[in-house]
Specification:
- This protein is an alpha+beta fold.
- It has helices spanning 7-30, 43-46, 249-262, 269-279; strands at 33-34, 36-41, 52-59, 62-70, 76-79, 91-92, 97-101, 110-111, 113-116, 122-128, 136-142, 147-154, 163-169, 174-179, 184-190, 202-205, 218-219, 226-230, 236-240, 245-248, 285-290.
- The strands form five sheets. The chain has an eight-stranded mixed β-sheet with strand order 8-7-3-4-5-2-10-9.
Length: 291
């Protein structure tokens, strides 16, 4: 004898199947991995952008940066690179944020959109505007080779998860480019074999434009070509963009201690001595130039 499924039960089964199908599509779209980034820049900054730009891409708490080149069709394209995790070659196209550094200009962050290029490859597409507000490079030089790790933390709109970092040896002139002051914080970790997560580093630029956390440089509200620099006695001086600022070892150690105190991090005498011992014989003068 045949039994008939009650209409309500049958409807529920159809709805459940439909929900599973929708969920399957959603999971498939959510997990779409791509390796190619395609960038559109609006007309305001398009002419100023060079043939190669830097993409700073953030997925969750992971930030990487890689170059993108301008193609003949007017798009900039780049391939995802994660130098710290070389086996990771893709990222989800539907949940990344990115900003651009344009060698003298930069952008805020925009969300990625899953798309296809002309070759039918899956890509993450980004469209950017930018503001013609001045950015700065910070050039760094020492009187001998010393390992420096830097950290950049952005407070730009939609960029709060952007945490860029890098390493170089500063015996020769090195530069950290396209810093949007005061919307980016920049810190230097000096002469650590491995970056120490407990060391906040030497604060060069701060999100706080008032300078109350004692950065090396604070914007001068009266003149965009000047920065406020505090000497070893805490006296304010105006530092002109482009002028070198040499800092001796004693000043660097004392500034690290003062900044740790402002940040309410342990400032016991042994912390000051540990910085002195780590840097002695490696650093005599740290010279910074804001460009």
């Amino acid at each position: 004898m045949l039994t008939r499924t009650p209409p309500a039960t049958h409807s529920r089964r159809l709805l459940n199947r439909a929900a599973l199908v929708v969920l399957g599509f959603a999971l498939e779209a959510h997990a779409q991995p791509v390796s190619i980034v395609q960038v559109t820049i609006d007309t305001d900054c398009r002419a100023a952008a060079q043939s190669e730009i830097t993409v700073v891409l953030t997925v969750g708490e992971q930030t990487v940066r890689f170059p993108a080149q301008k193609d003949t069709d007017g798009f900039w394209r780049g391939k995802y690179v994660d130098k710290e995790h070389p086996n990771v070659r893709t990222f989800p196209a539907d949940r990344a944020m990115a900003s651009l550094r344009l060698n003298g200009l930069r952008t805020g962050c925009e969300a990625s959109t899953p798309s296809e290029n002309g070759a039918k490859e899956d890509i993450a597409a980004f469209t950017f505007g930018c503001k013609r507000r001045k950015v700065h490079d910070i050039a760094i030089q020492t009187d001998g080779p010393i390992k420096i790790d830097y950290r950049r933390w952005s407070a730009l709109e939609n960029c709060q998860n952007e945490r860029d970092h890098g390493t170089f040896t500063a015996g020769t002139l090195q530069a950290i480019p396209d810093i949007w002051v005061p919307d980016e914080e920049v810190r230097l970790l000096l002469n650590w074999d491995k970056p120490n997560p407990l060391d906040p580093g030497l604060l060069v630029f701060s999100h706080d434009s008032t300078g109350t956390d004692f950065p090396l440089f604070s914007p001068d509200p009266t003149n965009p070509e000047l920065f406020i620099f505090l000497d070893k006695r805490g006296h304010a001086h105006r530092q002109k963009v482009g002028d070198p600022l040499p800092l001796d070892l004693e000043f660097v150690v004392n500034t690290l201690a003062n900044q740790r105190f402002k940040k309410r991090v342990d400032n016991a005498p042994n912390s000051r001595l540990a910085n002195q011992e780590r840097l002695k014989g490696k650093l005599k003068t740290l010279t910074l130039v804001v460009k």
